[in-house]
Hints:
The chain is an alpha/beta fold.
Amino acid sequence: xxxxxxxVLVLAGGAGGRLELLTEQRAKPAVPFAGVYRLVDxxxxxxxxxGISDVWVSVQYNPTSLSDHLxxxxxxxxxxxxxxxxxxxxxxxxxxxxxxxxxxxxLWRQADLIRGYDADALVVVSSDAVYKxxxxxxxxxxxxxxxxxxxxxxxxxxxxASRYGIVxxxxxxxxxDYAYKPDxxxxxxxxxEVFVFTPGATLDRLDGLQVELGDDGLxxxxxxxxxxxxxxxxxxxxxxxxxxRDVGTVPAYWQAHRDFLAAEPPIDLDDPAWPLHTRGGRRxxxxxxxxxxxxxxxxxGGTRIAGEVRGxxxxxxxxxxxxxxxxxxxxxPGVRVRAGARVVRAVLDDGVEVGEQAVVGGNGDVTLxxxxxxxxxxxxxxxGGRLPDPERD
Length: 393
């Protein structure tokens, strides 16, 4: 039997406002993770290991930061003469052109292009979660169920469930109820933003919804499309048993890094059978200088550590000077922590400089310092505080 024709659409066009200062000047999928990676590396690596070579990336906000990282798809073997990686920016010139106002709206605007590809299955994935998944296995399960949509699901904490689309599953894998970010979730079974659609039936349904609601009324997948498919008995669930974490908020982003500092991290990013690929950099090995203390941390290439680093993630080019202390923090590329300074439970964006004897964060909520911000010598950014990029004020 011939392999199914699969098209993956990576959603990379959202503003990412919940990540606050981290997405002011970069697309959310381009946000660094675990030192040398970017969030978009997860779905693209999943595509590569699933043997899927046709991947479209929808872009809209701050697209240059993402385009530079994608490098025409080369790190994931997607730089091909036919097929491979294709960027989908907003467009004008047809009756479906215009600014995208939600995921369902995006599918409707790109319907002609999607229909022209003539896929057996359309896989729609977000790029603000950390996980690994064989998309081809989900597609095969979807096709055997003869459904219109298969939603990959995961269990989430009860106090966090209202952030997600929540489903109830009846006998077998049939979804009997879907609620989009409900105030009072009926279960803790959430969709994890991986969906497999039967393209023709789904696009036909979107056309009908557009007539009823208008272009902008289509909104996100969970607003009207997924509830309609569920009501008609056309939705199935595919449980993801492994690790999955949405990192679309600052606390979640910080916590995901904590997860990967464990002696046995939830995903082995160097697993020979499923490595996480990214655009390679040109950095020398990390330098741990005499007298430095480094415990339970990730130190990327090009870092220089002369102080004390505990429970933290240091991206390429970070410098921690002698006498400085960094605890339970995430430092993005080019951060410098001067002598005697202290950084605790914080996320510091690209190029931040923490002056001598300054204090950033502490016990409490996660502190966030924006790109290129300067904390003056002896200055303080309190726990849970926000210090924006000075050039963006």
